[in-house]
Amino acid sequence: MVQTFLYRLLFFVVLMKEEVRILGVDDAPFSFEDESVMVVGVVMRAGSYVEGVLRSNVSVDGSDASEKLVEMICSSRFLSQLHAVLVDGACFAGFNVIDFQHVFEKTQIPIISVTRDEPDFEKIKTALKNRFKDWESRWEVLNKGSIWVMKTKYNPLYVRCVGVSESEAKEIIKLATIRGVLPEPVRMAHIIASGVVRGESYGKA
Amino acid sequence: MVQTFLYRLLFFVVLMKEEVRILGVDDAPFSFEDESVMVVGVVMRAGSYVEGVLRSNVSVDGSDASEKLVEMICSSRFLSQLHAVLVDGACFAGFNVIDFQHVFEKTQIPIISVTRDEPDFEKIKTALKNRFKDWESRWEVLNKGSIWVMKTKYNPLYVRCVGVSESEAKEIIKLATIRGVLPEPVRMAHIIASGVVRGESYGKA
Asked: B53 and chain A: CB distance < 8 Å anywhere?
């Protein structure tokens, strides 16, 4: 485990950038009548070439997001090649909260959450209180780790990372971004999940 | 209709290649117990940037492939921007045969079928005879237009096209191919359809 992690770090440090493999993950659109929601993962070499597509399902407002994400990563043939996991936001399928610390501990792969909208924690706390008996444990997981702002050419990104430093996370995000603000693996995961469920999607970066 | 077609031709002739939009389409893996099969379309700018993902469903061994493909193309927001449709093979979901002439007439967008395996028409005819009462009409559609071989750096591609000349079809295929043999929009459609249905896919070109 430690060896694999050191290898990854070394690999990244020597900057074989075009070989860096990143998994981007996003959930599909859903309605609250649905029981489960599709989650799509896209493995890309840097931000330019898609090597694989993964799919899982998580329950709406459930508590299986972390477990399903770990399973998706660890059961993949790409596991030993992945340098980072990029996720859009901190939850799948409503308030199915992702425990980034747990996912990193289980996979030993750095995980970075990016979002274009600044999280409104007061609003989130109120929504959790109104809808969940176990709101305190969800809130606790959501509050793990600090969120920092990354400037881009366009709008800022709100980032949280586990398993890498802020500067390394910035490097990874820059490397994976072709156009606009969102890293390509996350944009691709979004466009695929959305297109497959809705019948058509188009992806602005 | 004619105007749109001429515009497309002109656009391609003046070689604004990086702006050429191509739709690649492929079906998902299925078993013969399934009633319908997912078909995925990927809109790419040349072979490099995914702009949209489309999804439809066709019936296993049915007769709705052409109609569903026309619907997918014509209902898409990308319709007026598409320069060509690339399809892997001549059928979806078993022997749900695509009538390329019909699809071109309805959409006015050139359609090109590519496959890496040389079609064995004797074997196909026997399979059709054994499985379908309406084998003759399927056979007739399958035999429309001639198949020609396109040399690549690696293995040859077997190509059929309607709405463009052989040399134009070759240009479009070259433009859309990044690595290996398969044009990128078709490789992407395959990798997405397969990954979403099976849970994991990896795409060799």
From this structure: yes
Strand ordering across the sheet containing A21-27: A148-150, A157-162, A111-115, A82-88, A21-27, A36-45, A49-59, B200-202
Instruction: Spell out the alpha helix ranges (H) of A21-99.
Output: 65-74
pLDDT on residue B7: 61
pLDDT tens digits for range A174-198: 999 988 899 999 999 999 999 999 9
Residues of B within 8 A of A43 (CB-CB) are 202
With an 8 Å Cβ cutoff, is B204 touching chain A?
Answer: no
What is this structure's pTM? Answer: 0.91
Mean pLDDT estimate for chain A? 91
Number of Cβ atoms within 10 Å of the Cβ of A19: 12
Testing the interface with B: which of A53, A58, A69, A73 to mutate, by most B Cβ within 10 A?
Answer: A53
Picking from B55, B4, B46, the residue whose alpha carbon sits closest to that of residue B192 is B55
Position B32 confidence tier, pLDDT thresholds 50, 70, 90:
confident
Is B195 an interface residue toward A (CB < 8 Å)?
A: yes
Per the CATH hierarchy, to which homologous superfamily does domain A2-117+147-198 belong? Answer: archaeoglobus fulgidus dsm 4304 superfamily (3.30.2170.10)
CATH number of B2-198: 3.30.2170.10
Cα–Cα distance measured from residue B164 to residue B149, given in angstroms and rounded to the nearest whole number: 16
Q: What's the confidence (pLDDT) of residue A10?
A: 62
| Residue in B closest to A189 by C-alpha | B192
Question: Inter-chain contact A191–B50, Cβ cutoff 8 Å?
Answer: yes
Q: What are phi and psi of A54, to 5 degrees?
A: -115, 155
SS3 content of chain A, % helix, strand, coil (to 5): 40, 25, 35
Compare all CA atoms of chain B with the CA of A192 and give the residue at the minimum distance. B53
Give the pLDDT of residue B10.
Answer: 62
